Amino acid sequence: MLVTLAAGCRHTEGIRFRYRTHDGTESERSVEPLRIVHTGRRWYLVASNRQAWRTFRVDRITLPELTGSRYENPRTRSSWLPKAPESLRGTSSAESASRPRLRR
Predict the structure, then answer these.
(1) What is the distance of C-alpha 37 from the center of its chain?
(2) What is the CATH number of domain 2-88?
(3) Which of 72, 87, 91, 93 has its CA 20 to 30 A from that of 43?
(4) Domain map (residue ranges) of the chain
(5) Are the CB atoms for 56 and 68 separated by under 8 Å?
(6) Under 8 Å CB-to-CB from 92, ≥6 apart: which residues?
(7) End-to-end alpha-carbon separation of the chain, Å?
(8) pLDDT at residue 77 above 90?
(9) Are strands 61-70 and 53-57 parallel, antiparallel or unpaired?
């Protein structure tokens, strides 16, 4: 699973997967992945759904697949990530209150 998520991040290729929320509800998600981030004892996928930046717990993702659709790498834009997703603020992975430290 991590290989597929990492490939999407590296090759700026969309990913589709099933996601289970904290209450057990499952849904299909389609995103543009940016990075896989480790914080605390969990791994997260940081991705855009074209409306907002989102974080997804990797242990709640199933059946990830690359979609074949490519997108512009947001890191090439001058303001690629204006502020950290709410779910990452105040964690050990945050470089500051406004930008997460993202690991490869």
Answers:
(1) 8
(2) 2.30.30
(3) 72
(4) 2-88
(5) no
(6) 39, 40
(7) 16
(8) no
(9) unpaired
